[in-house]
């Protein structure tokens, strides 16, 4: 399996509000940047979308080291929340429906293809690639706002 490194980030202007996501993918000497946005969303949805879109850009099964500043995303897998949600019919520990089920289910489908290791990075600090993803996400928000909420 090819080994790929991915950095992702999501952002929201207001929460809910206009959202953007960014991802930077590395394979050997190659680097690819991805971004997009949604007019009415939440920060957590953008964090998830960044991961889904980044994994979706891979053309074959890969071993992935995925870096994110989102505790929501990283802890879900590192602490096994996702396993409990699936086992309990997408109900959380409080007995309520899991938020963003549609995106979690899409992400699980992508993870059937790839071997993903989630790694938490500190947001808005000295990690250049996390900062780059944040800049891509914020640029997507600006594009949406400039276009009156149209596509990014």
Layout of strands and helices, then pairs:
Elements: E1 2-14, E2 17-27, E3 30-41, H1 43-56, E4 62-68, H2 71-78, H3 81-87, H4 101-111, E5 115-120, H5 128-146
Parallel strand pairs: 1-4, 4-5
Antiparallel strand pairs: 1-2, 2-3
Helix pairs in contact: 1-4
Describe it for me?
The structure is a single chain. The chain has 152 residues and is an alpha/beta fold. The chain has 5 helices and 5 strands. A 5-stranded mixed sheet has the order 3-2-1-4-5. The N and C termini lie far apart (33 Å). The mean pLDDT is 95.
Order of helices and strands: EEEHEHHHEH
Q: Main sheet?
A: 5 strands, mixed
Structural class: alpha/beta
State the total count of DSSP E strands: 5
What features would you highlight for this structure?
5 strands; 39% helix; 5-stranded mixed beta sheet; 152 residues; alpha/beta
How would you summarize what this structure contains?
The chain has 152 residues and is α/β, with parallel strands linked by helices. Helix content is 39%, strand content 32%. A hairpin with a 2-residue loop joins strand 1 (2-14) and strand 2.
């Amino acid at each position: 399996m090819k080994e790929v490194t991915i950095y992702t980030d999501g952002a929201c202007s207001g929460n809910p509000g206009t959202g953007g996501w960014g991802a930077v993918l590395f394979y050997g000497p190659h680097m690819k940047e991805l971004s997009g946005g949604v007019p009415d969303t939440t920060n957590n949805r953008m964090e998830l979308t960044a991961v889904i879109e980044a994994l979706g850009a891979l053309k074959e099964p890969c071993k992935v080291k995925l870096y994110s500043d989102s505790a929501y995303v990283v802890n879900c897998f590192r602490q096994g929340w996702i396993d409990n949600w699936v086992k309990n019919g997408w109900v959380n520990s409080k007995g309520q429906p899991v938020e963003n089920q549609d995106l979690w289910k899409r992400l699980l489908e992508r993870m059937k293809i790839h071997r993903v290791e989630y790694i938490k990075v500190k947001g808005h600090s000295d990690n250049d690639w996390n900062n780059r993803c944040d800049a891509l996400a914020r640029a997507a928000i600006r594009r949406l706002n400039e276009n009156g909420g149209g596509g990014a």
